[in-house]
Amino acid sequence: MSTPTYTAPTTPSTPPAGRRAAVNLAAVREQWGDLLAAIEQPPAAEWPPRECAGFLDQLAATQAADDPMPAEPTIGRVPLMLREHPAPLNLTALDAALSVERDLFDLADAVAEQVQRPAIDEYDRDNLARWRLPTSRDIGPAAAASAGSRAYGLHWAAVWLEGRALDEPAGDLFRPIPALLAEHVAGVAARARRTVERALNRDSRSTTLDYPCPWCGGPLTGVTQAGDVPAVFCPRGEQCPAPAVLDRRRRVWQGAELVDLWAGVMAARKRAEEQA
Predict the structure, then answer these.
(1) Which residue has the higher pLDDT, 51 or 39?
(2) Which pLDDT tens digit goes with each residue over 96-138?
(3) How many C-beta neighbours within 10 Å does residue 8 have?
(4) Which residue in 36, 177, 179, 276 has the most C-beta neighbors within 10 A?
(5) pLDDT single digits (tens) 235-253
(6) In whole angstroms, what is the distance from residue 75 CA to residue 37 CA?
(7) What is the reported pTM?
(8) In sequence order, what are the residues at sequence separation of 6 or more whose Cβ sits closer than 8 angstroms to the Cβ of residue 60?
(9) Residue range 178-207, pLDDT digits in tens
(10) 206 forms bridges with which residues in the sheet?
């Protein structure tokens, strides 16, 4: 079975802190759309995880024809703190998104202040590779403020920080990131990833499911692992006739294969109802 992993374009010469930071930042930005979608959905049950709940629920026999389909993950460009959005249905996801957004924006500001060369002229100041700090100007009763590069959203902040963590070439615009700062970037990136995956129920956990294997009646266990596709195991292995992969003496359904399992569960429930 193949398991997806988050990758970043590191090289053998990339310092370990830079590699860790780049991989975790890639995980944050690749899951950011799912987190934004989760804000506008009721909190998901512990199993199945949110990323597979949508297509499993579509197979439920009790789903009404006029029920709304699950929201598609979207990538938000404008920062949460700068835009209006409907009342959230999942405050845990909203709090996680605001926390991660704030931490990565503040981190990008701090890195830019230490490694970014001051602008020479107007053209240099508007260079898209430059991280522009937020500014404010007192104009009396209100303050006029510019969000700087924060206006491009968290996805850009993560990409920009990856570039600094990997010391990507950009002429003389940036100095190499100091070792102590690189460790700080790696630490913040790791914490951000944990926050995102915890809010999406993608952190490491196992759950005993409340329905048996529809082929052999054995107990089923659902497992999620950070960065991995969710999976369900039947411990009866070869004794179980389920049309599923046999792995380490267990029947395994993983990722899209969970659709087959869920269809089997629903069919078993229907047979039980008919016999009752």
Answers:
(1) 39
(2) 999 999 999 999 999 999 999 999 999 998 898 999 999 875 5
(3) 18
(4) 177
(5) 999 999 999 999 989 999 9
(6) 9
(7) 0.65
(8) 262, 266
(9) 999 999 999 999 999 999 988 987 776 778
(10) 223
What is the rounded distance in angstroms from the CA atom of residue 231 to the CA atom of residue 12?
33
Please state, in angstroms and rounded to a whole number, the distance separating the CA atoms of residues 171 and 186.
Answer: 24
CA dist 8 and 28 (Å) reads 12
